[in-house]
User: Fold this.
Amino acid sequence: MVRGQPDYTLSIDDLGNNLKDMTARYGKEVMVVEVGGEDTKIQNTFDMLKAVIKKVEEVPGNKGLGVLYWEPQGARMWSRYPLSAWSTDGKPSRALDAFL
Assistant:
């Protein structure tokens, strides 16, 4: 990680390029179906989700179909899953607002 720069920013352009390459090469639609961020870094997860959604929306020909958060409701308090988007109050975190 570059000092002060979230990890996702180092590879988000690669994601966008890969999505565009797959649609150009195979002529098929694409989706990002397993994405998530640390539940203790809500703003970073929100920002990452917005960036991923933007890259999917930039796929030419409307061939970017969408983004799915993997196990957003798997709250760490009972599942020990650190990449959920659930807060300790038992409600969705602000990270999921990226989908609004």
User: Anything to note?
Assistant: The helical segments are 12-26, 42-57, 76-79. The chain has a mean pLDDT of 92. Residues 48-100 form one domain.
